[in-house]
């Protein structure tokens, strides 16, 4: 039987551990949202470092507690950097987050995302359409060959990505977080549904990317499933609170960082959460 209280208590421990140790999680991420990713990582108590080059990525992979790879804006050097660092992370057993932003656009993105299958990302974080398309690219259950990703946005429902998320988690042995109005997090045997957030999160760029960066911070301190769920929950609490204090997306982004900073371990434990066993789905 899955014990919800145990999951909540592990999330609280992860939040405290990160605040107490300021762990470093390096990133190779996109040029649109790089600043928000770093600020969100700092707000929850982590330390951020962003690089582009293969040797620097290897350095961060080895020096940090986890890493975040986000393919949002690809540069030619990434053809070398990304498979190289993913292999290092896989071989050294370092947790890493993959955000398959805009999967389906362009040949380099497709090739890199195909290469990542063998390096088993510890946490895969994406919106519903990205999760479905990645499962399709990897030939797993619940995936579709044709990506429904519209640029970087989802056109699928979160519940429609359930089978794909489970299949991806079973393949990697890690966790998958599907974001949207409500969020799903699974390790292939447990499915968590987390509530909260704000409609303003669709009106700023980088809510998803920074969620991946924060998941990497928590992955330095706990299991992939708890890390993905803790990040998802912190986002739901902070998003809900920020919305109450602002009247537009610009001030929301600023307030959201403040709320990430202020969210406590207790707030996370008290946020609305459903847990079910995957075998009963
Ligand atoms: N309509 C919404 N209501 C509440 N929270 C949302 C909504 N849309 C997105 N979020 C939140 O925004 C964050 C990013 O999710 P999403 O927008 O799906 O990712 P992406 O930016 O990669 O498409 C997640 O924390 C998610 O819970
Ligand atoms: C707009 C955009 N274009 C390429 S990457 C990117 C950022 C996407 O951020 P998110 O997926 O968090 O909304
Ligand atoms: Mg995204």
UniProtKB/TrEMBL annotation:
Sites binding substrate sit at 50, 206
Q: What is this enzyme's EC?
A: 2.7.1.50
Pathway assignment reads:
Cofactor biosynthesis; thiamine diphosphate biosynthesis; 4-methyl-5-(2-phosphoethyl)-thiazole from 5-(2-hydroxyethyl)-4-methylthiazole: step 1/1
The molecular function GO annotations come to:
ATP binding; hydroxyethylthiazole kinase activity; magnesium ion binding
Task: Tell me one GO biological process term.
Answer: thiamine biosynthetic process
Similarity section:
Belongs to the Thz kinase family.
- Name this polypeptide is given: Hydroxyethylthiazole kinase
